[in-house]
Amino acid sequence: MRLTRVYVDAPLASGMRVTLQGSAAGHLTRVLRLRVGEALTVFNGAGGEYAASIEHAHAGRVAVAIGELRAIERESPLTLTLAQGVSRGERMDLVVQKATELGASGVAPVLAERSVARLTAQQAERRLNHWRAIAIAACESSHPSASYRTRSSVPYGPPTQVANRQSHWQR
């Protein structure tokens, strides 16, 4: 039996109730077809994960009862941030997904001076939200217990300037 993992963007504690909405609720009820009483695992990126069960599912909302904390730490003690030049199309999506699955702590999208990809501030914000969603989905499927971070785009200058920007990439 496969145990489903779900990311919850909220503080978690044993004994509390959480209501999932939107794509997470739809995925649980329509795609995985989970029913009331079925078990799942929830995590919020603060470390560890919680056993949980579905209490109620109706109209795009799923009420989840949080059980005991499992102090499972699957993260590497090393912090690895991938500085990646923003690429066009779906290639950047694949980089974010695979970096997450391989255990990177985050990706720092870099806007290279000679890059073909150009983003306005509004496009950059939309892309960052899209990449965060991809990273969360990768965390749910590959079982890291800490949250993944996708940093804001950093204008990339000559290599001598990269060291000055490194503090932006740190957690």
Description:
- The protein has 171 residues and is an alpha/beta fold.
- It folds into 2 domains: 4-70, Hypothetical PUA domain-like, domain 1 (Ribosomal Protein L25, Chain P, Beta Barrel), CATH 2.40.240; 81-169, Alpha/beta knot, CATH 3.40.1280.
- It is 32% helix and 29% strand.
- It has a 5-stranded mixed beta sheet. Strands 6, 7, 8 and 9 form a 4-stranded parallel beta sheet that branches.
- Strand 6 (81-85), helix 2 (91-101) and strand 7 form a beta-alpha-beta unit.
- It is globular, with a radius of gyration of 18 Å.
- The relative contact order is 0.16.
- Residues 152-164 have low confidence and may be disordered.
Radius of gyration: 18 Å
As for the number of domains, it is 2
Q: First CA to last CA: what distance?
A: 36 Å
Structural class: alpha/beta
CATH-defined superfamily of the largest domain: SPOUT methyltransferase, trefoil knot domain
How many distinct beta strands? Answer: 9
Low-confidence stretches: 152-164
Tell me what the CATH architecture of the largest domain is: 3-Layer(aba) Sandwich
The main pleated sheet reads as: 5 strands, mixed
In round numbers, the mean pLDDT is: 79
Helices, by number, come to: 4
Helical content, roughly?
Answer: 25-40%
Please state roughly what percent of the residues sit in beta strands, choosing from under 5%, 5-15%, 15-25%, 25-35%, 35-45% or over 45%: 25-35%
CATH class of the largest domain: Alpha Beta
User: What order do the strands of the largest sheet run in, or round the barrel if closed?
Assistant: 1-3-4-5-2
CATH topology of the largest domain: Alpha/beta knot
Q: What's the SSE pattern?
A: EEHEEEEHEHEEH
